[in-house]
Design a protein that fits this description.
- With 203 residues, the chain is of the alpha+beta class.
- It is 30% helix and 36% strand.
- α2 packs parallel to α3.
- It has a 5-stranded antiparallel beta sheet, with helices on both faces.
Amino acid sequence: MIAKDTYKTILNPSEEILFKEKSSKFFGYAYPVSSEIEIKNHLDILRKKHFGAVHFCYAYQIGTATIQYRTNDDGEPSNSAGAPIYGQILSFDLTNILVIIVRYFGGTKLGVGGLISAYRTSALMAIEASIIIEKTIDIHYIITFDYKNMNKIMRIIKEKNLEIVSQKMEMNCEIEIKTRKKNAEMIYNSFKNIFEIAIKKVD
């Protein structure tokens, strides 16, 4: 069985969506993210934008090989907001995504069932307002070599159609390349067997 080397995420932040239920307003947003710092920044921006809102509920999932996720009910009854938002992320099979739903209370209580339904629907609308894309899971390698071996290295990079991430060209040269996960072992071996060249995986 070949290990999966693609994942689905969203291309850019979604359009703002609005869902209304019994006078309560739910504003939904989806963002592509890859770190907790980005998540905090998006929350801070929305808290300033919606300073009159009562709840900022969210869920996120980041990572491919190792998955990190979190749900937050932000004062709503336990599992009535974060969990249904996260459920929508899972149903679309997405990662590296944050979905935030901002609620303005309209004076009428919705009950736990009503809240679950409202947050689920708002999250669905936010994701549907996004462009879903498939990306490859890439492995990065650093190749270290003497300048005299430059031609050997560049020939393989060209032959294998590899993407150069960064390079440092001095007497001791360093090139960082990336390749799809499914090709990683083959690429590693292509360089490993060459005399006077060192290759290591970037963690």
